[in-house]
Structure formats: structure tokens, C-alpha cells
Design brief:
The chain has a single domain (6-255), classed as TIM Barrel, CATH 3.20.20. It is 36% helix and 18% strand. It contains nine helices and twelve strands. Strands 2, 5, 6, 7, 8, 9, 10 and 12 form an eight-stranded parallel β-sheet that branches. Helix 1 packs parallel to helix 3 (75-87), helix 6 crosses helix 7 and helix 8 (225-233) crosses helix 9. The longest helix is centred in the middle third of the chain and has 19 residues, at 149-167.
Length: 256
């Protein structure tokens, strides 16, 4: 895989059979998720870990790699996404809010008026034991760009150490909550020892990117059905023509 070759990173949040209307943008039903994973399998994509792409790969990467990520660590992702992923022998990366494991999504009532169960440590350890990659999503899900450097270090550093202590494996990847990100947050992630940092900026990442500012492809429950496949078709010769290929795709869809 050349340094400029594309690496699409899908961003999911919630997989649930009963999405709440106010959270529908971030919620995919299990049947929708299953259809998307079947499409990936049928079109030759091979899900990999972020470690495989940006760490020390044990061998060459597949011709069409893809990274599947889940933010927040909702329990229903464990309940409904894992069976679909394992049926395809797919891997994925789960970013968990370390300080709220086994509790509720305390940041959501003020944002959306809803609250959901989060995976506890038993579930998170099971993910790791099954071969899924576990990453950090801070301690409490704050807007990191609004915090002081010391607070940023606590949110990012403590979450990494907490997860490592619980699962007995290295944690080298972080997703920035709310997409709240700037140069200071990037530097804090670097200080805290993260190898990669996932943003919510829409786009298709490449190995030539700064690994602590990776774009992702948001998979939204409110998108038209064709959006998912159209986004992944915007990779001519599996190279990125530009970081805003996703915007071009969406403009085309809007004209249909």
C-alpha cells in the first residue's frame, strides 16, 4: 500500500432496532448495518485495524482496506453490531468513554434529550478478547477544544491508561468527542502517546495524512440509501483525488 493510497474510515455511533427520532442521524438499524457490511464484503473491502495501517504492520495491507469505527461505546453496538461483524469475520475499532463505562451517556440529555446505556468493562474486555480494537473517546466526553491543556491531558491521558488497565492491551488510538478538535487538542493527543486521532471531518483518509487528524466517512441514519455506496465509490483506483471527494459525492446525490 503506497503512502498516498486511500484508507476509508467509516464512523458509526449507534446500532439499534428502534432509533429515537431526535438521534436518528446517528443511529443505524441492524438490518441497515447488515446490508452495508454485506456490500463491503461483496465489493472486496477488507476491514483492518488502525494499528495495521499506522502502526507496525505484520505484513502487506489488503488491496482495498477499510476501517470501521464506532464512537461512544453504546451497549447496543455490542448487542447488534458484533453479530453482524463476526458473521463476515470483520474487525472494527470501538472508541469508549472510559470514565462512564457501564453507566449512561451523560453528555446526551443536554444535547439531544436522550440517554443510552454504555458498555461496561466486561463487554469491553470481551471486544478485545474477540480481536476488536479498543480506542479512547476521553474520560467524560467533553468538548476538548474548550478545555485547558491540563484538562485535555487528563481527559486524554487518563482515558488511555484506564482502558489499558482494564483490557490489558495497549491503547494507541483516540476519537475526539463532538469532533471538538484544534491544534492544541492534536498536540495533547500526541503528548498522551496516541498514534492516531480520528476527527469527524468528512473525507477519505490516506496514509500520507497526519495520523492524529484523520478524516472519516460519517454513516448517518438520515442519509439516503445510496449515500453509503456512493461515498465508497468515490475512490478512483483506490486513491484520493482530494480530501473533499465526499462533498462532491453528496452534491451529486442532491441532484438525483
Amino acid at each position: 500500500m503506497s503512502a498516498a493510497q486511500s484508507l476509508p474510515i467509516l464512523m458509526y455511533h449507534q446500532i439499534t432496532p428502534a432509533p429515537d427520532r431526535v438521534f436518528r442521524k446517528y443511529a443505524i438499524t441492524p438490518s441497515e448495518f447488515a446490508e452495508q457490511m454485506s456490500w463491503i464484503a461483496g465489493h472486496g473491502f477488507v476491514p483492518i485495524h488502525l494499528d495495521d495501517a499506522f502502526g507496525d504492520p505484520s505484513g502487506p495491507l489488503p488491496a482495498k482496506p477499510i476501517v470501521i469505527t464506532f464512537d461512544d461505546g453504546f451497549q447496543d453496538c455490542f448487542d447488534y453490531a458484533i453479530p453482524v461483524l463476526t458473521s463476515h469475520a470483520f474487525t472494527a475499532t470501538f472508541f469508549v468513554v472510559a470514565g462512564l463505562a457501564g453507566k449512561r451517556s451523560e453528555w446526551l440529555p443536554a444535547e439531544r434529550g436522550v440517554e443510552y446505556d454504555l458498555m461496561g468493562w466486561d463487554s469491553i474486555r470481551t471486544l478485545a478478547d474477540l480481536g476488536f480494537e479498543c480506542g479512547a473517546h476521553s474520560m467524560t466526553h467533553p468538548r476538548l477544544a474548550r478545555l485547558s491543556p491540563d484538562e485535555q491531558d487528563r481527559e486524554l491521558g487518563d482515558s488511555r491508561r484506564t482502558i489499558e488497565d482494564q483490557i490489558g492491551r495497549a491503547v494507541r488510538h483516540v476519537a475526539y468527542p463532538f469532533g471538538s478538535f484544534n491544534a492544541a487538542v492534536r498536540d495533547a493527543a500526541d503528548r498522551c502517546g496516541y498514534l492516531t486521532g480520528c476527527t469527524v471531518a468528512p473525507g477519505i483518509a490516506t496514509l500520507a495524512d497526519d495520523p492524529l487528524t484523520l478524516d472519516r466517512i460519517p454513516v448517518n441514519g438520515t442519509d439516503p440509501p445510496l449515500a453509503f455506496t456512493a461515498q465508497l465509490r468515490q475512490i478512483p483506483a483506490w486513491r484520493v483525488a482530494g480530501h473533499r471527494a465526499l462533498d462532491t459525492c453528496r452534491n451529486l446525490l442532491a441532484r438525483l
